[in-house]
Amino acid sequence: MNSYFQRATSGIEEIVAIRRDIHAHPELGFEETRTAELVAERLASWGIEVRTGLGRLGVVGTIRGRNSDRRRIGLRADMDALAMTEANAVPHASLHAGKMHACGHDGHTAMLLGAARLLAERSDFDGTVHVIFQPAEEGRGGALAMLEDGLFDQFPCDRIYGLHSYPSMAVGAFGTRPQAFMAASGRWQVTFHGSGGHGGMTPHLAADLTVVQANFILGLQTIVSRNIAPGETAIISVGHIQAGDPNAMNVMPAELKISGTMRAFSPGTQAVLESKIAAMAQAHAQLASARAEVKCWWNAAPVVNDVEAVHVAARAAARVSGSEAVDSQMKQLTAGEDFSWMLQQRPGAFMFIGNGRRLGDGGGHLHMPNYDFNDDALPYGIAYWLSLVDEELGTA
Hints:
Blueprint: H1 3-9, H2 12-24, H3 33-45, E1 49-54, E2 58-64, E3 72-78, H4 105-121, E4 128-134, H5 142-148, H6 151-154, E5 159-166, E6 174-175, E7 179-182, E8 184-193, E9 197-198, H7 209-227, E10 234-243, E11 251-252, E12 255-264, H8 267-287, E13 291-300, E14 303-305, H9 307-321, E15 326-327, H10 339-345, E16 348-354, H11 378-393
Parallel strand pairs: 3-4, 3-5, 5-16, 6-15
Antiparallel strand pairs: 1-2, 2-4, 6-16, 7-14, 8-12, 8-13, 9-11, 10-12
């Protein structure tokens, strides 16, 4: 067992308890008041300098080693939960209906807290470590809010690193890749407006928005196949449709809303998706004498890892689990991650840590109602952070 893992297991019961407490009290983006207070309190109790309120609810702890101005790095974790109802029956299941930690952010926060505690106990490195706890990663703009509040002006970082759970990988495994790693994540929303009407007596007098949306959805599926080069990757998916009233089934709706997500790896592809979604909505509306309002926006840019930072991160992970457990050429993922905005301002690397899928409670994948962060992965994540600090800042 390597020294990083041995250090990480010291006091791990406290970190497990923190993780489960956060899991039981999930908070959505920009609502993480309790979580941020817990993080700030623990950091302060370990003698770490703490700044709160950055990007509304962000927390930053600063740990200074020897020659603290020589080099500075940032380690980032996210704190928010998802608007989902938990299906697990574990003792620490969500206490708040319609909210749950289905993406592992409770584990991310706990792992970084565990590393911060150990770094503060033994700051035998040359430089400064900023531990960054970000609110609102799940599409609500938390990274941008912290950056707009001057994150890197107030807490300078030569490099920035992120870590995320991945149930498809075994516990103890790590994965990353240089350059483009994850897709830009966008949202689109179309509202169709028509006359509405009596579906039983005068359907011929109405602009039938249900037919408009049916043709629009079918058309969406051709945008990627006929506008994006075969070697490129892009996705358009429908996630929500709303129209009419189930208590008025003979009434043709006068308004229909449809929305979804889009993914791409390049600015050019992003622009094509936006323009084609808008053009297709307008065209189908016009054919039915209806009209369309279209909104498109991007929650996250592509995650583009710095090549040298990936080498550093891979070496750090290998010192924890062995080189055979580290995939440094992981396939590109169409998942989105707003850590991408931080990577646009500072070089760095985003790493996945294996969380292991299991049967029963807690055996689901990310964003599933039966997902629960696997506590067996906690010491591996803590050890990775410790090893990464040594890789970047060395030991005394």
